[in-house]
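M28 family peptidase structure dump, as promised
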Amino acid sequence: MFLRCNEILKILSEWPVRTSGSEDEMLARESMVTLLESQTDVTIVEEAFWCPVSNQALLGMISIGVVLTLWVSSYMPYIALLSGLFFWISYLLHLDGRAHPLVWVLPKKLTANISASKGAGQGLYILMAHLDTKKCLLWDQQENDIYRKYVNYLTIAVIASCVLVPILNIIGYNLSFFGLAFLSAIVLCRLCAEFIPVLQAKEENNDLGVAAATVAASKFWHTLPKNAEVRLLITTGHEQAFSGVAHYIRQHKENWHFKSVFVINFDALTTNNLGYNLRSGTLTPVLYSNVLSKLVAEIPYQDHRFVTVKPQTKSFVNFETVYFYRASIPSLTLTSETASGNSISEEMAAEKAVVLTEKLVAKIDIN
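structure tokens r here:
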């Protein structure tokens, strides 16, 4: 028997708070592994890696570095300039979902991705979802993309002060004590805002995404696509610049040179209208114009059940698929509308994503 959405949602509901590297995340992961072991001839591997503790730890390190750089710029302007460039560029790389040198010095916890696969052949279908959750913060309550964009632009400008102030010192203009104190206060206030949780708000989770990806993989394992392997990938490190996906690609990319790899990601699924992400990105735009996006666009015209499935564009948001995009691997994220749509039950929402995935995979020609 293939797995069902309600049993997966029930398991995940036992650990609603699953921050990356936490004990609750480990327990949820082990429960998912136990569930997957019920599937016949499926190879299950837990791939461990060291993940940064939190996004707040990174911003805290950058904020402290920026403040120290501001105050030493009057005495060592050239060293302060190099230091400022280091922290500013590190933040830009982090914001854009790229590797940066601060990752190596951040405190880390041991965690793991789950990889479960069955089948063999020229094709490789990766069905992916992230397991970890994040605390709902003040910025996350703003559903308006324009608001989120300007908050991030403001943060970039504030951190850029550690580059501008040393330059001003080099050309002979020294900022006053009160000016430095004002800039430092802004930097620290922005850092504090990162720790303000929304009262009575639930953790942001991807339970529906995990359920949909797992059920879809289970169905494919019982009726494998011709000449193909189907792999379920449950990742972690979502809020830590997609550390789990980055680790996974580093470990496996060399094995994919002679395969046709297709990645379907399930993220931010809700009971609102189902759709797929066509364009996202923070500093650099990411346009998912590939065989998967073209094929999924045909399905609403062929099946009236998916007439509401439409492409979506999200500003200042990235998905795990960005790493596959940069590796030139066809990828697509199934997600839901931010605004309220035709709300349905959780199980029906996950099942709809599963059926859409089945139809999409059936249209792929790996030859």
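Residues 77-95 form the longest helix (19 residues).
lmk if u need the other ones
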